[in-house]
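Q: Hi! First time asking for a complex rather than a single chain. Here are the components, and I think there are two in total. Is that enough to go on?
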Amino acid sequence: MKQILLLCCLSVVFFQSYADLKPLDDAQLGAATGEGLGLVLDDFVFNVDDAVTTLTGIENSQGEDVVVKWTDFYIMGEGSNKGSNETPVDIGTFAHPWTISAIPGSDISSVNDSLAVFQVAAENYTDPLNNTEDYAGWAYFQEQHCRTSGVCSSDPNNAVSAIDAQISSMTLERDAISGKYGNNLTGLNNSITSDINNQIKPQQTVVANEQDDIEPAYNTMDYYWDRLGSGARNDTDGFGTKSDGICAFWEDCAYKSEYNNAVDNYNAQVSQFNDAQRELAPRWNEVKWNNVSLKERLTDLEQYESLCGDVGSTGGGCSDGAIVIRQAQRSKVVDVALGIGSGLTRRGGIDIGSKFEFDVYDSTTGTTRTDYLDIDLSGVTLDGSYIRLWGSNGDLDGEINLKLFADSLSIATCGPACSAAQVQASTLTGTNVFLNLALGYGKAQPLKFSVTPDGQFEAELPKLTYSNHQDFYQNAPKTSVFIGNVNLGGNNDLGGLTIDGMQFNYLKVNSHDL
Amino acid sequence: MSVYTSVVFILVVLNVVTVHAELTPLSDEQLSYSTGQAFISVDASSYQDFEFTKINLGLDVELQSNIDELRLGEFDRTGDPSVADESQPADVIIRNFGLGRVDDYDTTNPKIVPFIIKDPYIELAYKKDGAGGRQIAGFRLGFAQAKGDLSGDFVSLTGNMEGLITGSSSIAYDVGCGPGGSVGWFDCLALSIAGDTTIEAVAKLVDKDTGQPNLGGSYVKRATWLGIPQGESFSAPDGGLIGALVPTLSRVDNCKALGLDACFPVSIYQSFYVGDPGTDNFETGSAKGIFMSLQSQQVPWQDYAGSGRINTDKGAFMNFASYTDTNGQKRYPFVVDLYSALTGTTRVPTCIGQTKGC
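A: Yes, that's all I need. Here is the structure of the assembled complex.
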């Protein structure tokens, strides 16, 4: 195994005192308790280009072994050309170190308690150009402008135009809904609550009761059908139809009248259910306020609240919701655009890559084949990411927030025998890739992870409650995934992918054996 | 000191910070039963020029979530004859996408009802180039079983979405022949005679102008309408004389059946129940075969909820297709009552304190 590890400088320092940088000896490190450590890897290169790590124990559905080989792994500076040029990189800087620390929960708004929180955090940048989340937001709208307008120039203000267009569209939609009801959103909200309570819910109860009557009626009909004499049964058109012929005295006519009564009763119950539904269904359209149906009002209110927040809380203003979120994001987009426009450049990122081989049994051909996977990320930045852990009633609670931006992500699946042209034709490339994974939000919804005695894992984001929902919706980070454009082989654009603003009110994941 | 020992040492030092989690030791007997690694398996298969690798995850997932916007397959489709709505920039656009629901959402005691997923999987499709190489042709995320409420502002949809519309023909009479109805006298007479006869039809994504589920020889892309496809009709599963007449009377022509509209903008449907809402039994009441995929070219995905292949084109694809249950019965991933199909469905709340947009 050839292994090159260039470590020009590794500095581990007290976080609060990195102004005077001196190496620590083992004794000093041992005395470090909770003050926090700053971690900087200067001129760092990690390259394992022909080592093989083999993973076994994974099987296919038939129980046959699948062997996974991890054959390459590198971490270098941007411009390494997928690990071929050993370009050094700084992971953290003395001004912006990674930190490992124990901090009071009272210093974290989401935790807001005196308990101690263990935190591993990537570097932090406040200037928008170097702040990964802000820069990724700008990149998202820059790509969106390109796709929606067809103008794909390098003018950084294209992103501002794109977010302005989105805010304008949302504002127009808000004004149209508000104007439709004379700006009386509270009245709209009240009318819906009143109509649902007085018109819909009582009839829903009737429908539910009628529906409940059907199953016993059906079971009774089924009971007598099973016992119905053969002569009487021959006079039906099948289960559910009455025995309406003349049953001769020599035929078995047992339970004929009971069965026929049960059929009548079942049909009556179904009819009553249909009548109840027929009464309920039109109410959504026929119950009106300001000459607008209940269904239309409800749709309008829901749309207004998604743009402007809960009318009950805001009083019909627009102090919350998607418009406020986009307006706040706009200022960051403008700042990044100004920075780029004035000639500032973003710091270089990290290049990371790995290769894998999977020996899998092809159930169709009955042979074992090797799948190759070559993954390369270039220009990666992670600032603003963190993991926080704390103890709570015997459980380990935490928050994970990973902010990963990459200028490009390449995935190649052609094996080592492929020509350069084949590799290029088979490489899938994503540009402006941003993953913002946010799981856990303080004591309101900590991420819990545990392992059961039988070796299975369980992860949970507990159910959000009424008492903490407003703080959660206003402040908890959301998960987003964005890829500006995906391209196969250089000439086959597959477009963008956006998962914007994902949040869990509840999540529970349990593993089990397959 | 090497970099490795430095890192290890740092981690050891950090043990002094106060994390109070109580780690319960496992006994030898408990450890001997530990088999957690078996929650992952990898299957490989091939079909024509394609090779597939499927990573199965043994997971039970309960979630109640919201996504502000989901956009898949956002690329130029100019000139593609299968595009139903050329104004849509992406194959799939869903805003305020919600899974699960919140009952009593506007009270101080809201009840979160999760969407349930069992055994999700990830599958990669490779296309062989005939010269020893291959390229990624597609990716899909699927679920062996799923059940619960699915909501959204559906803007643009691409894929195979089959829903069963069912209900009493008297509902259709009320809508079409009642106050404000626009159905002609002959159709109203037919609906009147049909009375409480249960009628049903399968709805799919269609082109709004023609009611066709296919354009240019392929399924419609970027559809904004859902309906009973051209030439299809209602049926009466309970049979009988009236039931026998229903298919003839209700054949769809230009998005009309029995004088009623048979195609509707997808935006009027704000919530669907995936699976059978009438049972809490997940095994019997869950929908099967659901997946979302992205392809760089045509990919014939295996149908794990039935037999054969599901042919997909370049772009994004959502599969909510009919499937066969363990008793051999044909099932649909979602069922819509006739009135809702004709007038739209309201959204179930997916937030606490407000229905959506949290």
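A: Residues 37-343 of chain B form one domain. Let me know if you'd like any chain examined more closely.
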